[in-house]
Design brief:
The protein is built from two helices and twelve strands, in the order ββββαβββαβββββ. The two termini are about 20 Å apart. It has helices at about 85-95, 135-145; strands spanning about 20-25, 35-40, 45-50, 80-85, 105-110, 110-115, 130, 155-160, 165-175, 180, 190, 200-215. A hairpin with a 2-residue loop joins β9 (about 165-175) and β10 (about 180). The radius of gyration is 18 Å and the shape is globular. With about 220 residues, it is mostly beta strands. Helices cover about 10% and strands about 30% of the residues. The longest helix is centred in the middle third of the chain and has 10 residues, at about 85-95. The protein has one domain. Strands 5, 6, 7, 8, 9, 10, 11 and 12 form an eight-stranded antiparallel β-sheet that branches.
Length: about 220
């Protein structure tokens, strides 16, 4: 669930409107904007013709560009494109550990709250990873209640440590027709993987560790 509260006059009633979910009118950049370029180490890698510093994350991975429709209040505007995540806003929330509902800090004195759908992530797994940004105390319960994916009964992780793991995106290669996109998967490539040189990221992934699994009722008041 990724949302920002609607105003009383909103046609979506009281449903939370996503912050990181794409909005109508937001479009990804064209393939023609990409090229092969030499990286800092001299090796060829994927890049933009007019690449800016913010096009790469702190680990040097290239991110997909997507336009944004921002209202006068500085927040995304327009009809939500449910199930579609805006890459820049997802990256912002994951990098800075901001609430995916309101984009404010998700840090609490108890830890950081991450939600997962029923059965989506097994706490007993050796490695637990997620591309879903955290939520703040104020929006944990509304997100759980209103997001179909969470079904009102999420697995709630109260996390003390959630280091960056890697990214999900689309691999590219040079073919007979020039630069070509390869089939994308939901599998995350870890930072440091050699394939990231020719990768266009769309979602950031964190590894959850040093966590406690609780229920929504265990959460303290905001």
């Amino acid at each position: 669930m990724t949302a920002h509260p609607t105003s009383p006059s909103s046609p979506i009633l009281s449903r939370l409107v996503p912050y990181i979910t794409s909005r109508e009118g937001e479009h990804p950049d064209l393939l023609l904007s990409l090229r092969g370029t030499h990286g800092p180490d001299g090796h060829l890698q994927l890049g933009y013709w007019d690449e800016l510093r913010e096009d790469r994350d702190l680990r040097g991975v290239l991110w997909g560009r997507c336009s944004q429709t921002i209202g006068a209040d500085g927040l995304p505007s327009g009809r939500p494109q449910w199930r579609m995540v805006h890459p820049s806003r997802q990256r912002e929330c994951m990098e800075q550990l901001r609430c995916q509902v309101c984009a404010q800090s998700a840090r609490t004195r108890h830890g950081i709250i991450f939600l997962a759908g029923p059965g989506e992530m097994q706490p007993e797994q050796a490695v637990v990873r997620t591309a879903q940004p955290p939520v703040c105390l104020k929006h944990a319960r509304p997100a759980a209640e209103q997001c179909p994916h969470l079904d009102g009964r999420p697995t709630v992780f109260l996390v003390q440590s959630a280091p960056l793991y890697g990214v999900i995106g689309t691999p590219y290669q040079y073919g007979n027709g020039g630069l070509q996109a390869l089939p994308a998967t939901d599998e995350a490539l870890p930072y440091g993987h050699p394939g990231l040189r020719w990768y266009l990221a769309s979602q950031m992934v964190r590894r959850l560790r040093a966590y406690t699994v609780i229920t929504l009722d265990d959460l303290p008041d905001p």
